[in-house]
Write the structure tokens for this entry.
Amino acid sequence: MDRRRADGRPDAVPLTRILGPPDRRREVDPVAGPDRAVRVAVLGCGVVGTEVVRLLTRQSADLAARVGAPLELVGVAVRDLATPRDAVVDPDLLTTDAEALVDRADVVVEVMGGIEPARALLLRAIAGGAAVVTANKALLGQDGPTLYAAADAAGVDLYFEAAVAGAIPLVRPVRESLAGDRITRVLGIVNGTTNYVLDQMTSAGLELDQAVEQAQALGYAEADPTADVEGFDAAAKAAILASLAFHTRVSVDDVHREGITAVSAQDVEAARETGYVIKLLAIAERVTASPDGAAPVDGVVVRVHPALVPDTHPLAGVRGAFNAVFVEAEAAGELMFYGRGAGGLPTASAVLGDVVTVARHRVQGGKGPIESRYADLPVHPIGRATTRYQIRLRVADRPGVLAQVAQAFAAHDVSIKAVRQSPPVDGGGATDLLVVTHRADDAALSATVERLAGLDVVDGVLSVLRVEGA
Ligand code: NDP
Ligand code: HSE
């Protein structure tokens, strides 16, 4: 229905849509416009929130022109009023009463992080008819469906460009620009901290612990770097991307996750010697599997793990804390997105882009996309993924050993592409083998590794790394 008035401004939409349930209706003019500012509440004033406030303040004239109405920052919710803040933050706007602040806003920007109270505050904002913008991938990865459902039911916008890959426009291209195509794969580096750590291990020869300490000193990694180095952050982002790309609900619990804590300096060196670099990759792909010989079923596999990438591949050139993501779609082909995946100002750029979009919707009418989950594909376990592998083994250096190792691969239908033997170790009684496979099922490879580990001639499986992009 056309909601434009004769003067070209949008007509008021029904109060129940704008203001939410009767018990939470606010006594406000529902339609912002040149005469009525769009009231913006910011929840959180840390690394990202401070920069959101800075952009809202410094660019207010441009933002008003782009939106068609001024954006009025009505408050900034924090945990502790005594914490020193950047001078750009007006102390009079700070509050610890986030609920009251939410109730006064047309647009609520959540950059506080964590699950609660962020979830309750966003649901309150949505129920009250406010549009919401969040950078909170942990919350979306864990409980996105609750937020999508609430936003869809209330008819309000839920935008989250900053939740995946910081400044890089990635959510919108996947959610909107590629909505007419069929995405087959999303693959990339979505965690800046671990990319910095692996890059330092590769370029400066650091051990993992030393590189993590350096990342902390530079402010990339937090005091507790678990979410980054154990792959939780990347897994949440992978779940969000997979949900959008495949029109299917994927939660962080569906994502196979391995962090980088098992990557050693020796792995990095072995990778270098064979023309690879190690990257923590997030991969979401459409697969067709035939479980137990049954008819083929379309599904998705979503995984986060360290992988070998050829040193000539564009992902190998992604240095420091940068992110880069490839999206493969049937009609569009391969697309690459690259840029800063973290940091206050880059992330604030993505947040402000969303704020302008949802504010425009309030002024000019219209609404962003609702959750698309019609495909409802099954999420398969990692065992159904297929890729190539590089396995390092320490074995006895005597006749017949290679034959036994080759037999273990053959027994699980895993085809060997190349084998390289290092000079003798342990005084000559042992040697290291590096085995590279052709494409194989992850389940078959796991069974092979188990069999290898049980062979008398194998002293140890030193590492198993998937090979991507080759
Ligand atoms: P910070 O820890 O720097 O800031 C969090 C802010 O939220 C602080 O101002 C804190 O208040 C406030 N806060 C926390 N809990 C509460 C609460 N219960 N009530 C009121 N205020 C609260 O986080 P970041 O800015 O780094 O991250 C914010 C969000 O953005 C997270 O979801 C994160 O995952 C996401 N993100 C961050 C990126 C980055 O590079 N940092 C990149 C992309 C996304 P106080 O200051 O008083 O402690
Ligand atoms: N901790 C994240 C990273 C930044 O290192 O990429 C927020 O997404």
